[in-house]
Each structure stands twice: as C-alpha cells, then as structure tokens.
Design goal:
heterotrimer; A mainly alpha (274); B alpha/beta (460); C mainly alpha (292); A: 274 residues; mainly alpha; MetI-like fold; 0% strand; flat; C: mainly alpha
Chain lengths: 274, 460, 292
C-alpha cells in the first residue's frame, strides 16, 4: 500500500516537473536573450550571452517610454477592473437572490455579451458621438464594459454558495441593502472577486487591440505597445523586444504571486452549511 | 488582511495617477542639438512663420513599423527644440497599420501627419478621398527635392500631396556569398533559370541551403514573382497597360505560369530550405555569417548589415533574380510617403515640419541614422551618400534599357493591396492544395473587387 | 424579509448601462451594417443590399465555409483537451503534495503572457532547423519525431492545439481549483469509508459539485474557441496556405481589405452560432443546478 502510494506520488511529481519545465523554458529563453546583443539575440538560443548587456533594460525603458506606459497600464487595468468587479458583484447579487422574470431575462441578456464579437469601428463611432474618443475615460469605460458579461456570470455562479440565511440574519440585525452587501456578502465572495479581478486585470494588461483602435495619441498607450518600437520590417532588435517583454510581464506576475493566496484559500463554508 | 490589500491597491492607484500626470509631457531623449542650434536659427529665418509661433503645441505623426523607426529621431529632436513643440510619434504594428489608418481617416481622428506605402496608384486606392484628407502642398519648395521618377507617387495630376524620402538601392535582388561561390568553383552568377538550378545543385551538394526563403514572414516569398515584372512586360509588350485597362489578366499568362512552376520546382527540390514555409528572416544575417546559406533575397544594403552583425570575412555580391530567365532591374519608384492630414488643428506646423525635414542637414541626419540604407533618393548634391562598392559595381553592370519597367506590384493597379493574399495562395500552391492558374485567378478576382469599389471604369 | 427593499433593483444600473452603450450598441450597429455594402474605399453612399453579403460568404471561391468548419473543430477539440487535463491537474494539485504551490504558480504563468509574445516564442521553439523542440527531440534520441511543426499540413493543427493548451490549461485549472475547494473534505472521507474508488468519487462527488466551475470553463472555453483569433493569427496567420483559417482570421482579412460589410456579416454568423451554443450550455447547466 505504501509503496503504491510512493510510486504514485513520484509519478505526480514527475508529471508536474515536466509540465513546469515546459512552462519555464520559454520564459528562460526570453530572459536570457534579453541580455544579449542584437545579433546574438536573433538566434533565440538557450545559451548564455557572451557579453551581458544589462544596459538593454535601460535603453528599453528610455526609448519605449516605459514609465508612461506603465502608469497608463496600471490606471486602465486597475480602475476598469475595480469598477467592473464591484458593479457586477452588486448586479450578480440581485440577479441570484431576486429571481424575477425581469432579472432572469437581464441575466441572459448580459450573458449574450460573452458571445458578441467586438466591432472596433462602430465602437469608436459611439465614443466619438459621446465626445470621449481618444481619452483615458473612454478607454476605461470600454474596458469595464467588456468585462461585464464575464464578471456577472462568474460571480452569480458562486453566489449560490453564499447561503440566504446570512442575508436573513443580517436583516434581523437591522442591516440595509448596502450594509448587507458590503459587510456580509462581499467578504463571503472574496475568493471569486479576487479571481475575477486578477483574471480581468491581466486581460486588460495584455490587451493591445483596444487601445490601438480607440486612441490616436501615444500618450495614452499602455506598456505592451512599446514592443513595436523595436520592430521593423528589416530591423528587429530582439534583445530589446525580449527586455520589453520581461518588463511588461513582471508586474502581472508579481500581482498573481501576491493574489494567489486569495484565489485558493477557499471559503469557510463550514460556518452555515454543516 | 483585506485592509492591507485594499490599502496597497489604493497606493498603487495614487502613484499611477501621479505618474500619469507627471509624465504626460515626455522630453526628447537626444540632446545633440547644441551645435546645430545656430544653423537651426538661420533656417527658421527662412521659413514663413517664426519659431516662437508654435510654442507648446504637439505635432502627431502616425507611421507604420519600418517606415521611420529611429532614423528620424535626431531630426525630430532638433525640430522640437527649434520650434518649442512636442512631436508625438506613433509607431503602429505593420499588420494593423492599414486598417488603423482607414478607421482613423473615416472616424476623423487621424494624426497631423500620416504615412502610406505609396506608388503611382496608391493615393487613389489607399487614401481614396485624398482631396478631403490630404493637405494640398502644391507650390511647396521641397518638391524640388523629390526625384522625378518618384513624383508620381506624391502627386495626383498636378497637385502635390506627399513627400517621399526613400532610397535607390536595388531592392530584393539576390545577395550571394562570393567567397563561398569561389570555393565551390561556381564561376559566374546565374542569369537563366537553368543556370540557377545548376548553382542550387552545387550548393545543395555542399550541404548548404542554396536559396534561403523566409516563408514565415508572410510577405517575402512572392517577391521573386513580382520583382521580375520587367520580364513579363518584355515577353508581352504593353502588358502593364493592358492589366490596368482590364484588357489582360494574370490568369493564363504563360510567362507567369512558367515562373510559378519554376518557383514550385525549387521548393520541391528543397532548394529553399527544408522548412522554408516555417522559417522567418530574423536570423538571416547570422545564416549568411555562419555560412549556412548560399543566396537569399535582400536589399543591397543588407550586405552592410551582414558585415556589421557577424564576424564574417566573406565577400558578398548581387545579381538579378533569374526566374523566367529574367534580366531586368526591379525599378521601384515607390516607398513610404508622408502626408499632411487636412483635418489637423495646426496646418502651418505641419508645413513647417515638411520644410524642416527636407533641409540638407535633416536629410543627412536621416541617412546617417539609417544603418540599413546606403543612400537617400533626393535631388540634393550636398548630401553625402554612402553607396557600397558592391552596389556601385552591380548598378554599373546593368544597362539602362533594363531599368525601364517598374516592378509588377507598383506598375499595375490594385495589385499591391492583395500581396498577402497572393502570398497565402502561393504557399497553398507549393503544398499542392491549389493550381498555379488558380493563384493567378484569385489575384484577378481580388483586383476586380477593388476596382469595382473604386468605381474604376475599366471594370464596369 | 421584504425582498424588494433588501434587494434593490438599482444595483443593476451601472453594469447595464455600460454594457448596453459600449458593448451592445456597437455590436448591433455592426449587425445592421452587415446588410449594406459598407466598404471603406467607396466614396459613395451606403447601399442596402439585403442578404447579398451572406450569400457571398456561402458561395464564394474563398472557402469561408472551411473557416467556419475549422472554427467549430478547434472549439470542440481544444476544449476537450484543456478541460480534461485541467481537471485532472486541479485534482492532483489539490491534495497534499510537496511544493504544490510552486507547481500551481508556475502552471498558471503562461496565461499571463500576451499572445504576441507566445507567438514569437513558439515560432522560434517550433522552428524546424534549430527550434527548441526539434533540438530537444534530437538530444534525447527521439529525432525521428521531428516535424515541420508549423508548415506541415498534417501537423500544424496539432501544434496549434499544443500551444493553445500550453497557454490555457493554467487558467482552466485555476477555476477548477477554486471550485474544488468548496467541496467539503467530509464528503470524500465518507465515501472512502464506504469503499468508493477514485473514479466513483470523481463521478459521484466531484463532478456534480463542480457544476459551477464546469459551466464557467465550458462557456468560456466555447466562446474563446469560437472567437479564437490571437493564437492562430500569431502562429500561422491562417496559413500555411489557408489551412488554419478560422472565422475570425477571415473577418480580420476582410476588414483589412476594407470590405467592412462582408467582414461584419461573417462576424454576425459567428455571433449567431456562438449564441446558440452558449445559451444551450448555460440553460442545461442551470437546470442541473436547480435539480440539486
């Protein structure tokens, strides 16, 4: 019995390690090549650089205007995700608790959005008519709205595991709707809120089509657009490209590492169920 | 725990907002303008408006990857200093540029200056409503800087709209490793297809990739077909005009079918490389330097790049692509061209920029900052060119009557717009999922669609 | 408890407005335009042409229908791959395993990368001559397995599935993990006492309790698959030839050629297919939930 267990465990470890290597190798290639000279980096090999060009990073930050790009990225991702997640949590709460015909219809109505392909041209028409084309506000609103179907869907699905008894208990204690929501419900929803937040945050962070189409000033561009500064039809500075990739991915990876605890900490479902 | 997280979030938000506010006015990186400020002052005396008139304004430029890159950085920095303005240079990825431009033009949100890849037909077929979108520059002084052959790409009729500053180096001819050829006893460069086959055999026998074809780039492999446009015109004089009049088609053209068949033969024999469809050109310089390949297509200035980036001691040379027994030169009076957006808020600033860029000093700067180009095509003898000896040798070996016809994609209407479609079809043909004539038929169909949309009478 | 007071309807306003104005409206406008000959290059006015665009799509030489078929095929296969692997990985990583948090972290990382980067990396990795994969295969003496990963017609789709799985499994796994953590361990303990095997536990305890996560992953997986663009665009751009074209790559090409009307029509067809499938799935899963 024990031997079988051990073999099983070792097998699990091997699989995990193999998978992790498959994941890590490409990252390693990117990092190692970001420190090479232009022609060496073009080979995209796994060998160590002959000369370590740490200066590539400084060059990339300057030429790619990465500080501006970084603050833009953070602004868009943070604000739009926060707005969307909270607004959707409120909506999901109502939809799941108050199962009226209207709410049911609205739920499926919003769900349709998951399938709707984005049409950038008509979208910029709409933005133009509202006079918010080419502004940060416009972008943030667009990002927020594109997240709504996902967030409403995800949060509503988890809402069913928050027992109604908690609501009743709170009301008896004299809580109003807002109080009920923010004090009782939100803490119970924490894992799904954080998951939704992180997933959408990272989605916005890597989105480059939306800012590309909806802005005409490079002042508004998020960080990942800078990669194209180092690309040319005949000249490709892969070392800079890779350095830029590392810098762009770093914040998101950090965020994930920090938020990871929340994603899988689980709920103390024991409180009411058992 | 929750509080910590929230406060962290808030901090980041605050910092982000602060940073955004602080860095909304990017300062120019290069400040080598010190010596030249005297010159700049004297130049601005010549222009119509004083340098101080524009202080604080922002000039936006929209360009595709590869058309400006960092070549204009120094000139732009000087411009910013001279006029006290900021230049917002937006480099858009090549794949997205065309539809970006269209949606910006139709949406009315275009940058002050925009670029297109222009040829004698492009202004009408790409910009379409040029009278509404382009500033009319007729009468500008800088017109004299543009070489005669390129004016067609900058003008419609007698009206001047665009400025084209490109190079005259032979584009996408064959670069070959002279030293390697000598070592393998290949005495002369092939000038017919049969000779090309023989050379390829020799190179393949020596375990090299004879003709490196970067199919994965998506746009390079149609070049051999289109660059030899002159040979189609020679075989059937008047072909270009007929194609533009809709009295001839690509389909069933014997010479073209011949060339396509030859292309496939080379592919089937593995002379393009074992997996040419999956290989791209990022490593091309190294492939030459490492002596893995014998020939490849490229701009003549690429030779300089090979020498700069690798430690090769080999000599390189150029020759014309001999498919279809071609011996014509790929004349191409096309290139990235800049236009002023008519809906701009500062037309005078735009005009000032165009003037500024055409001064000898600016032109020299642009050339000097272009490691990939050896010359700049302008009517200004004061600019010092950097022609490579290999280029000069090559150009001298070609007689003028072989330079008369421009390449197929520039000489015929609506063709260049479907370059990528043709490229995909060409791959399908090489993989056996399409016939050669179908590739040509698709091009005809595509051109017809574009012609109908443009209301071209010849296709009614 | 007064339901109306405690569950105010106005909670729904913000999302609805945002959604309607910025998401729905452009989409509907787009659909409306699909019935016209909207072309960016035409100087003249817009003409209503009814179903002409749709007819063109189904009868054209360019084989748009192959693109539709490829899209459906990709959706089904990529989801089977990702969901089953993701589920097993999640189960494996839920139990006590030393270093499991490291594994979990690492496996999720690919989902973080933008598609452009994944495309660049894998284009290089899958290169026939000196790409990482083929070099590695030779290194471990499996050289005969070398393939032209992105240009051989018989292999190219497998490569796409592979890269897509590389990127997507972490995401799927994370959602499953969140769901798995809501199943009380006591259920499994009780089942073990009753002598249940791994498969029995899976089918009778895990799956029924995971309906939420499964729905999420299925719906997103399906809509992602039907709308897939980035990964194919970046790896093969519909090539080689037109072997890996999907609806969205055609939509993009038409758009880039200025044929907006045709592009939007193809988009609408996609929308209709996606909606039908998605709603079916959601309704089915909803019923399952209620039955519990």
């Amino acid at each position: 019995m024990n031997v079988r267990r051990t073999v099983y465990t070792i097998l699990k470890h091997l699989i995990c390690i193999a998978l992790c290597l498959a994941v890590v190798m490409p990252f390693y290639m990117v990092i190692i090549n970001s420190l090479k000279s232009k022609s060496e980096a073009a080979r995209m090999s796994l060998s160590l650089p002959t000369v370590w060009h740490f200066g590539n990073y400084i060059e990339v930050i300057n030429r790619g205007k990465l500080m501006l790009g970084f603050s833009n990225s953070v602004l868009y991702a943070l604000v739009s995700t926060s707005v969307a997640v909270f607004a959707c949590a409120m909506a999901a709460f109502i939809i799941s608790r108050k199962k009226t015909k209207l709410n049911n219809f609205l739920y499926y109505f919003i769900l349709c959005g998951l399938f709707l392909p984005v049409n950038y041209v008509t979208l910029s028409m709409v933005l133009n008519s509202l006079n918010i084309a080419n502004t940060r506000y416009g972008l943030i609103l667009v990002f927020s709205s594109s997240m709504i179907p996902f967030c409403v869907f995800t949060i509503r699905n988890f809402m069913s595991s928050v027992p109604v008894e908690m609501d009743e208990a709170a009301v008896i204690d004299g809580a109003g709707p807002l109080n009920l929501f923010f004090r009782i419900i939100v803490p119970m929803l924490r894992p799904v809120l954080v998951t939704a937040f992180l997933l959408q945050f990272m989605g916005v962070w890597s989105d480059f089509m939306t800012p590309l189409y909806l802005t005409s000033s490079s002042k508004l561009w998020p960080m990942n657009m800078a990669v194209y500064t180092f690309f040319g039809k005949n000249q490709q500075y892969w070392n800079y490209v890779f350095a830029d990739i590392v810098l762009t991915c770093l914040p998101v990876i950090l965020l994930y590492l920090l938020g990871q605890k929340y994603i899988v900490s689980g709920m103390t479902s024991g409180a009411v169920k058992e | 725990m929750k509080k910590k997280f929230m406060s962290m979030l808030l901090c980041i938000t605050m910092i982000a907002i602060m940073l955004t506010g602080c860095s909304s006015n990017p300062t120019p990186e290069n400040n080598d303008g010190n010596e030249t400020s005297a010159l700049a002052a004297s130049e601005s005396k010549d222009s119509d408006s004083g340098a101080g008139d524009f202080a604080g304004e922002t000039l936006s430029i929209m360009v595709s990857q590869g058309w400006m890159d960092n070549r204009y950085d120094e000139t732009i920095a000087r411009f910013e200093e001279t006029y006290g303005v900021t230049v917002d240079l937006q480099t858009i990825p090549a794949d997205q540029y065309d539809d970006m431009l269209q949606s910006k033009l139709t949406g009315g949100t275009c940058a002050d200056i925009f670029w297109i890849q222009s040829n004698p037909f492009a202004i009408e077929s790409v910009i379409v409503d040029y009278e509404n979108y382009c500033i009319n520059f007729t009468g500008a002084q800088w017109k004299s800087v543009i070489p005669e052959a390129r004016l067609d790409s900058c003008m419609v009729g007698d009206t001047l709209y665009g400025l084209q500053l490109w190079h005259n180096s032979p584009e996408y001819v064959m670069i070959y490793n002279k030293t390697l050829f000598a070592e393998l006893d290949i005495e002369s460069t092939p000038s017919t297809y049969t000779e090309l086959l023989t050379v390829c055999e020799t190179l393949a026998a020596a375990d090299l990739t004879p003709w490196f074809m970067p199919g994965a780039d998506g746009w390079q492999h149609p070049l051999p077909f289109f660059q030899i446009g002159g040979v189609y015109e020679e075989t059937q004089p008047g072909l270009y005009d007929a194609l533009n009049d809709n009295t001839a088609t690509f389909a069933d053209n014997e010479k073209m079918l011949e060339v396509l068949t030859q292309f496939k033969e080379l592919s089937d024999k593995g002379y393009f490389g074992e997996d040419w469809i999956g290989s791209d050109s990022t490593n091309l310089a190294n492939e030459f330097g490492d002596r893995n390949i014998g020939m490849a297509m490229g701009n003549s200035s690429f030779i300089q790049q090979i020498k700069d980036e690798t430690e090769t001691q080999d000599e390189f040379g150029l020759f014309l692509i001999p498919l279809g027994d071609n011996d014509t030169f790929p004349t191409n009076p096309a290139g990235p061209t800049m236009f002023g957006y008519k809906g701009t808020e500062h037309p005078e600033l735009v005009k000032a920029f165009f003037d500024f860029v055409c001064t000898t000093q600016s032109l020299q700067e642009i050339l000097d900052n272009s490691p990939a180009y050896t010359n700049i095509a302008v009517n200004d003898d004061a600019v010092e060119q950097h022609w490579l000896p290999e280029e000069e040798e090559f150009m001298q070996s070609i007689s003028e009557d072989k330079m008369l016809t421009s390449v197929l994609q520039t000489g015929t209407k609506y063709t260049n717009d479907y370059w990528m479609d043709f490229a995909a079809d060409l791959v399908a043909y090489c993989q056996g999922t399409m016939e050669a004539n179908d590739v040509l038929k698709n091009m005809d169909a595509n051109r017809a669609t574009a012609a109908e949309v443009a209301g071209d009478e010849a296709w009614q | 408890m007064n339901k109306k007071k405690i569950y105010p309807q106005w909670f729904l306003i913000v999302p609805l407005v945002l959604y309607a104005v910025f998401f729905l409206l452009p989409g509907v406008l787009g659909v409306a335009y699909s019935f016209t000959d909207w072309n960016v290059r035409s100087l003249g006015e817009l003409n209503f042409i009814g179903l002409d665009n749709y007819i063109e799509i189904f009868t054209s030489d360019k084989n748009y229908t192959a693109g539709i078929f490829n899209t459906l095929k990709f959706t089904v296969i990529s989801n089977i791959i990702k969901l089953t692997t993701g589920l097993f990985l999640a189960i494996m990583l839920k139990e006590k395993l030393k270093g499991k948090s490291i594994y979990r972290t690492l496996l999720y990382l690919p989902s973080v990368l933008p598609f452009l980067i994944i495309g660049l990396i894998f284009k290089s990795v899958l290169n026939y001559n000196n790409g990482l994969l083929n070099t590695f295969l030779e290194f471990i003496n499996l050289g005969f397995l070398k393939q032209k990963w992105l240009s051989d017609l018989s292999v190219v789709w497998k490569s796409i599935y592979g890269v897509d799985a590389w990127r997507g499994i972490g995401y799927v796994m994370t959602i499953f993990l969140a769901g798995l953590n809501t199943i009380p361990q006591s259920y499994y303990d009780a089942a073990s006492i009753d002598g249940a095997s791994f498969w029995q536990k899976l089918i009778h305890i895990t799956l029924p309790n995971l309906t939420g996560s499964i729905t999420i992953n299925l719906v997103f997986g399906l809509t992602y698959g039907l709308k897939v663009f980035d990964i194919i665009y970046v790896l093969t751009n519909g090539g080689p030839g037109h072997a890996t074209e999907v609806v969205t790559t055609y939509v993009y090409q038409l758009y880039a050629n200025g044929q907006y009307g045709l592009s939007v029509s193809l988009n609408t067809i996609l929308f209709v297919i996606t909606m039908m499938i998605g709603l079916l799935v959601v309704k089915y899963m909803g019923k399952q939930e209620v039955q519990q």
